[in-house]
Amino acid sequence: MKRTSSKRILAIDDEPIILEIVQGCLEDLAGWDVLIAKSGEEGLRKAIEEKPDAIVLDMMMPEMDGLGFLRRLRSDSKTQSIPVILLTVKEEFTDRHWRSLLNLAAVLTKPFDPYQLIEQISTAIDRNEEN
User: Is the peptide bond before 111 cis (omega within 30 degrees of 0)?
Assistant: First the structure.
């Protein structure tokens, strides 16, 4: 499933092992560049500076959680259109209501299937590029 398209994905999670797994999956299986952020604040800075094609976001983080991150991301015209794929242990966020309310491209629960993550990101980027 190796892809040649060079996309830049920002992964935001406070758990180093999750970041390592996401980075490995996206780089090794999809051939994408992966930026890493260990907090919502760091993620916002990188989203503004690097303008990634998509963001993989953890919902539960200290200080600024995923909701706070999303509010700030969507309030900035430079970052509001970046597709966000949520990775979470909370089943309730997989509900369509939450996905729509939070303007998420996709929601995957941890543990996740690496190939499903790649497909969800690809679909989100394709939809975003069509608009």
Answer: yes
